[in-house]
Amino acid sequence: MQLKAVQKSADEENFDKMKAVYDACLDEDKIKSLGVEPLLRVLEEIKKAYPEGDAASLLARYGVTGLIATGTGADDRDPDTVVVSVAAPYSFGLPSKERYEDENLVEKYRGVTVKVLSALYPDAKEESFSKIVDFEKKLAAASPSTEDREDVTKYYNPMSLDDANKLAPEVDLKGLLHELAPEHVDISRVIVMAPEYQSKLSSILKETDSEVVMNYFVWKGVQSFSGYVDAEEIKPYRRFVNELAGKVSKYGNHFRPCTNYP
After folding, report:
1. Taking the chain, what is the end-to-end CA distance rounded to the nearest angstrom?
2. d(CA 227, CA 31)
3. Nearest one of 94, 121, 67, 91 to 245, comparing CA atoms
4. Which residues have a Cβ under 8 Å from the Cβ of 3 and sit 6 or more positions away?
5. Are strands 78-87 and 158-160 parallel, antiparallel or unpaired?
6. pLDDT digit string (tens) for 195-245?
7. Cα dist. 143→36, 97, 196 in Å?
């Protein structure tokens, strides 16, 4: 006797999807056999998108913050209203802006950045990879302090989207939000949480070579997705992050699939 198929509920379908992803993460042999190729495909997407000005949008669709962080939440002065917020990223590479003041750490981080990217792109110039860290230092210095990030009198700056876009037109905030928002949502007002950062960002971008900016986006991709591949090329970065987190003695150089390394 053939039993009648029962249609699965939404919760059951979601569980099946989560289980499929989890099972894929546990297939370490498969992940190791693929090596760095899955990551390189994503990085090539980023490089192709950059000349068109779509690299930030592409990263955002992957859940990666590039130069500006965006999000939604309750309006501090009107809790019943959902508003879009625009802010400086909390991290540009090192865990906090203060870590860029440690020159020894910065130089170690620079060495890791150059080593990893040179392994991924052996024909490229190392100097351009080294300049990524200098670019990050400028961005970190321009970003607000932790105290200012948490002070509502500092971060609550409502603006029209047009005015917010003018602070750093090179980023094309309007285009970025248009790509991220559902089709039926019209965004005309945003909370600019760090207007000074955006103004400084505009100046930094004007004085930075476009190749360095593109490589910065590529490096964001490496950092964000390095935990999903098992390849020799990215192991120096994972070791560096584990050292920062004090995990070397516990984990050593062991590969942990589907783990993000911030």
Report:
1. 54
2. 11
3. 94
4. none
5. unpaired
6. 999 999 999 999 999 999 999 999 999 999 998 999 999 999 999 999 998
7. 33, 8, 8
Residue among 251, 161, 143 at smallest CA distance from 204:
143
Whole-angstrom CA distances from 76 to 82, 85, 155, 177 are 10, 11, 10, 20
Q: At what angle do helices 210-225 and 37-49 cross, to 10 degrees?
A: 150
The pTM of the whole model exceeds 0.90: no
Judge residue 98's burial from the number of C-beta atoms within 10 Å of its C-beta, 0-12 exposed, 13-18 middle, 19 or more buried: exposed
What is the tens place of the pLDDT at every residue in 102-131? 999 999 999 999 999 999 999 999 999 999
Residue in 108, 150, 153 with CA at minimum distance from that of residue 133: 108
Q: Going by C-beta distance under 8 Å and a sequence separation of 6 or more, which residues neighbour residue 35?
A: 229, 230, 231
User: What torsion do the CA atoms of 60, 143, 120, 235 make, to the nearest 10 degrees?
Assistant: -100
Q: Which of 94, 120, 127, 93 is nearest to 232 (CA)?
A: 120
Those residues whose C-beta lies under 8 Å from the C-beta of residue 218, and which sit 6 or more positions away, are: 43, 46, 47, 117
Q: Are 8 and 16 in contact (CB under 8 A)?
A: yes
